[in-house]
Design a protein that fits this description.
- The structure is a single chain.
- By secondary structure, the protein is mainly alpha-helical.
- 55% of the residues lie in helices and 7% in strands.
- The chain has seven helices and three strands; from the N terminus they run H-H-H-E-H-H-E-E-H-H.
- The protein has a three-stranded antiparallel β-sheet with strand order 1-3-2.
- The protein is globular.
- This is MarR family winged helix-turn-helix transcriptional regulator.
- It comes from Hoeflea ulvae.
- Keywords: DNA-binding, Transcription, Transcription regulation.
- InterPro entries: ArsR-like_HTH (IPR011991), HTH_MarR-typ (IPR000835), Tscrpt_reg_MarR-type_CS (IPR023187), WH-like_DNA-bd_sf (IPR036388), WH_DNA-bd_sf (IPR036390).
Length: 164
């Protein structure tokens, strides 16, 4: 039966509780990580996503934008505007690919390396501190499970037994 607001009787019996709602809990964890990032690295005027891009370029220079998008899980439109801002700030450079001049490769500038490299160890400390509430013996498994939750469903390995 449906009432005048369109709510079915079945929906009225659903126990909605944010305390156990997975998406809400992930959002709260993300908020905590963002606050920690701002406390530890906010003076550098970079966002966590920008640092992810710069750190990826430090580890793997001269990436095409589509590959950088894939590695950082940032959609190409968002990445394109972010790269324009990072380039305007002098942190990255775009150079034509030798084999195909139509392809632009993205790399850190010298200034980008100077800014990024000191931030990486602090970012790793932040990553470890974020897991402080998780018992030490369970942290590796937690990260493994979080990786599964965040994986692209089209490229994630399928597990046969979802009860484990």
């Amino acid at each position: 039966m449906t009432d005048d607001t369109g709510t079915t009787e079945a929906l009225k019996t659903v126990d909605f509780s944010l305390e156990v709602h997975n998406a809400h809990l992930i959002r709260r964890a993300h908020q905590r990580a963002t606050v920690m990032f701002q406390q530890m690295l906010g003076s550098h005027k970079l966002t966590p996503t920008q640092l992810a891009v710069l750190g990826t370029l430090d580890r793997s220079p001269d990436l095409p934008q589509n590959e950088l998008s894939r590695r950082t899980a940032i959609d190409t439109a968002t990445l394109s505007s972010m790269l324009r801002r990072l380039e305007a700030a002098g942190l990255i450079e775009r150079v034509p690919s030798s084999p195909d001049q139509r392809v632009q490769l993205v790399r850190l500038s010298d200034q980008g390396r100077e800014v990024t490299r000191p931030m990486i160890p602090i970012s790793m400390q932040l990553s470890a501190a974020l897991l402080d509430p998780v018992p030490a013996a369970e942290r590796a498994r937690f990260v493994e499970l979080l990786t599964l939750v965040g994986a692209d469903p089209d490229s994630a390995p399928q597990t046969k037994d979802k009860t484990k």
